[in-house]
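> run fold MFS transporter
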Amino acid sequence: MLDCCCKLMRRGYMQRVRVWRRPLHAKRGQTMSDPALMRKIGWRLLPLLFAGYTLSIIDRVNISFAREPMSADIGLSAAAFGFGAGLFFLVYCAFEVPSNALLVRFGARVWLARIMVTWGLLTMVMAWVQTPLHFYAMRALLGAAEAGFYPGVVYLLSAWFPDRHRAAALSLLMLGGPVAGIIVGPLSMHILLHLDGVMGFKGWQWLFLLQGAPAVVMAGVLYRWLADSPQHASWLDRHERDALQRSLGQDSACERGEGRFWDVLSDLHFWRLALALATVYLGVYSVMFWLPALLQQKGAVGMQALGWMTIAPYVASLLLMPLLAFSSDRLDERRWHIGAALLLAVGGILAALWLARDGVGLLLGLSVAYAGITSTIPLIWSMVGKRYQGSQSALTIALINTIASLGSFAGPWLLGIGQQLTGSLLTPMCAVAVSLGVGALLIVKGGEPTPELSLR
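> ok
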């Protein structure tokens, strides 16, 4: 799968010389970066970051597969599970900006490796939770540990990839989400079925132990091979570093004024992007955390079959995300691509509700919805990277992700409450569809953000 992603990068994303002949870039005096240099950087950085991001998604959402046996053992209600699942993001929000401030202080290589070690160990400790209170505490600690990883990676990519290549790089990174979904379902169900009772541990305990350990190992690999910036990359020669710096410098010089970090709070584009991303995150994690339960509501589904069925939305996302990013980069347009994808997601949810009596129809509708939602994320972050640059942009990225992560908390929690009140997860999914429609309006009606703020 990773080799396939890198082939896409080689063939489509990094060799678009003919595409960038439009007057917009010519007026700004930009020169096309050497495609060979972009491939070299992509091959060095993206596999490492892709692996780290994939593991982060696995360790976030594996509780959705452990939910049923774990809830029976420790006494979790549906609302309590939804709250605990979302609590991760509430604490994540609180620690995100401080974490990224420390990333700037210590460097991405050290700080991202620290984050991975901490979240991997805490995921393993989840095997010993015995009460709902323990569950809440561990989810909160896991949120604090992982805070800053994703915005830190986004900031790191902005230091390596010029604006015209950034959506492609981000979309390749974001493919880690669907790949994680494809892996985590069958793997989790296999662990639950075949390791239950081994050495006195329940299946769900083995799930956390075995899925937390790879993050600890990967942290060492990241620390060994990652470079904080082009200046620290011994694998680039002087001419390559100079060419990359010129390309990145041209991005920062394009019609951009100076500003302080807190000036973003008075910028309407900041709030528009943050709130639109919050609606997207609400949709993503509503589906990710509750997909197994939604499918189980439609009848008796075996655990192994359930693990394979949950792959469908992630495969759909894996297909749509690179296509949308390639089209967006090729046309140098973000707004209408995002709006169209979110409306596709709304249509998918409505189709799932309409076909709810048929488990296959439900799965297909949710697959279309999930693919539409997730495909917008790299495009929104590309808009953020175009708007905000400079030494304090890492904190701006973290602040936007902090606000957006409130949607990650609200989605799973509200669906859990909705199920407890109505006995069904389908009714609260209507609220998710409305939220995505609002997100589409925020992006489409707000206009294309111009590259105006360089933050000191």
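Confidence is low (pLDDT under 50) at residues 4-33, 253-257.
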